[in-house]
Structure prediction request, 274 residues.
Amino acid sequence: MAGGRRWEAMELDCLVNIFQRLGIEDLTLGVPFVCKSWYRASLDPICWKVLDFQALDFMPWSNFSKRFMRRYSPQHFSFSGFMKFAINRSHGGVVELRFPLLIGASLKDLVHASNLCPRLKIAVLPRIMLEDEEHIPELVGKWKDLERLEMESKPSSFSEIATQINLNCKSFTGLRMFGSIKKEDVLAITKSLPKIKYLCLSRSYLCKKELLAIVDGCRELEKLIVNDCIGFEADEEVLKRASAITTFEHEGSKLYDDLGYDTDECDIHHVRVI
Prediction:
């Protein structure tokens, strides 16, 4: 409108305040190509503190990949390259990093993120190759400010991960993973993460004995989510022992699965792909 204020004339800090609420796709393919002032604002590291790659399709034939190729003309497009592009724009200020679920990520991607995102508070890790799981504890231990860790499956190195969190991540309060939760896993949680406030083990094999050990050993739990688990039913004893937990979700959990198993012999039936 004649005489009205123009968007491109808005103060830079105001634009940054708005753009930091946008997703990566808008920051990459939309905002920078509107005008020069929007482009400058989109480069502010504050806009890149939260990197959620889960909503994007990194397949070469996807609309996002094709649009990125047209806009930036790289020699080739890959998740690894795009992740480095986004982390570089953050100037090391990433506080939340969510890896994509479908294509996963390589060990090199995790190492790169661990080295260049020292201020990370929330990490959502993808599935990685079994032979690479032994490296996760060292990588997680570098995130001194880590508050919450989510993993798409329980890695074989979980006990070592919990130890590293206990030693290095003094603000840690939340964990999500699923798989076959065994005695050694429960011991790792209660011994290394006794002050945890949020724990989600939904879609896991979790027997009543181990569930109660978690309830008794993690006295500061405020939210425990064990929906759709196999190995226990929320009977009177379970509900009574968990009554001090503010939020205790157990919908869909049952003692046996559809094949009649009630032990972790059937791990393959309980570790499900999201």
In short: Residues 179-274 form one domain.
